[in-house]
């Protein structure tokens, strides 16, 4: 039977593999930092007082590179020591960016050494520095590392929160690899919590992203985990089919460890259906794990084989395998594996009639279980302590608010007394002269007006705070929707993809394709709604860089060529050389893709579409012209509004959300440009023009 320990073992090895990606990214950022240090050294070479600082910066970078290498070699104590030295120097130089990198590496090393509290502190400090620097990449890495620690400590809810924050960061960075790994980590957490439906949904989303970025190894690993989940969901047929496909893909890919994982999981699935076949699968997996010296996996598989042999009344053989599993568990110091192996040994000795040995093994297992229970209790106490501190802070805030209210009431009472005294004094000195009386009367009126103004000001401020809170709530709901609304569609798309791999009947295959296309249309609508809300709330970030608008137009045209060919539409390119601008590559490609796909969508068959770029004195322009249905005067007035119905309709039963041109207009304006449409009337085609500032006349961001 597939169990939590096998998931944790796969998680441990998966984390080691995924960590390599983070380490490689760290090496890239490390090279950038080293180059910046060399530049700083060159600029300050003529200033002797700066030479020491430049030398220290290079030394910090060298220590960080050595620490990364030590992590890759699993030499965690050395990595901790090197990163700590780098942190000391970075703090001395007040280099915040280098401090954040050093703390992140310290946190990774501490976690691998099971020093979770120290790791938690290091990553929390790294996150604080990243927020101070407003470095989204470092913030995202810190959130992901905090999630791993909370998961290891059993604080699942906190792990989920930090994983979602990391996922949001990776999506903003357009880092599909990081997003896929985070989705996979969320699936593992939900599986540990026995929330198998949620785990399945996130595994499928992770697999889709892994497929999109052509990461075959992780895609197959996710399929193996998905197959195991189907058994808990009461879907054995899907489980068997999924593991068969995963094994076939692993063999084609040629990764021995993936093949071993698939064989071991297949053995778990066939435990009841075909025990002999299950044992054979486990033996094949064991041989691979032994070849690659994967001790934790060997321990699990040996115990599984022992349990299978015991179920077939082969207790003597089972004893041999269980003893080997126990010895390996002792060697690596895994208390959970040790406990499970001892319990199995107790059962085997009992079957063999050796009551003394059975009792001894059972007592040892129970002692370990009690110690693990104590650890769980300590975790629970830590959670309760954090909850208490949180409630304590809330009470302190309420007390401060009450104190402020009392202070406000006291101030108002003092103002009332002052006004009354002023009135008494005014009456007392009324006889001094009419001029003085009038002056005091005017002063009183002015004070009342000021009081009214202050009251109105407080009302406006309160309303502003309420609106800000409401806006924040809207943004929070949007953030939840960006994940939860996608889940059902991603699940449907995942099942459709799995069915397409199995179906051979053409009619059934076409029906599944229709389901997949409908899901993709709905997903596009959700994404466009989320993009619109993000733009309006000012949350969207543009990563600007010098771009050639002609290159973008050429790439978008190539992407849309298959759709044009289906309608026998010819795409004509007339591109200027070096139509340079400053902008976000992905967002500007989204703009051009919308215009070109619309030209194809609203054009009849056998027509032409012309894509032209041109360079002017202060701007560059891209024009997409079609021979389609054209636009009326009424269409031109409401063309760029949201959910507007125009007279033109798609000519090939294509779908339209009514949001595309609205998003185009907002994205172009965020780049400091403008967009408009031209048409001589119905039936005379239309032209959409995008104009952006030229690179040498715009301000770089």
Share of residues in strands = 5-15%
- For the termini, the CA-CA separation is 56 Å
Give the tally of β-strands.
Answer: 7
Determine the number of helices (DSSP H or I, runs of at least 4 residues).
24
Strand order of the largest sheet: 2-4-5-7-6
Gyration radius over CA: 33 Å
Secondary structure: helix percent: over 70%
Main pleated sheet: 5 strands, mixed
Structural class: alpha+beta
The overall pLDDT average reads 78
Give the overall shape. globular
Low-confidence stretches: 1-49, 372-378, 697-701
How would you describe the overall organization of this protein?
This protein is of the alpha+beta class. The chain has helices at about 5-45, 50-70, 75-95, 95-110, 115-135, 135-150, 155-170, 175-190, 195-210, 215-230, 235-255, 255-270, 275-290, 295-310, 315-330, 335-350, 355-430, 435-485, 485-500, 505-535, 550-565, 585-600, 635-640, 660-670; strands at about 545-550, 570-575, 580-585, 610-615, 620-625, 675-680, 685-695. Helices cover about 75% and strands about 5% of the residues. The strands form two sheets. The chain has a five-stranded mixed sheet. A two-stranded antiparallel ribbon has the order 1-3. A hairpin with a 7-residue loop joins β6 (about 675-680) and β7 (about 685-695). α10 runs antiparallel to α11, α10 (about 215-230) packs parallel to α12 (about 255-270) and α14 (about 295-310) packs antiparallel against α15 (about 315-330). The chain is globular and about 105 Å long. The two termini are about 55 Å apart. Residues about 1-50, about 370-380 and about 695-700 have low confidence and may be disordered.
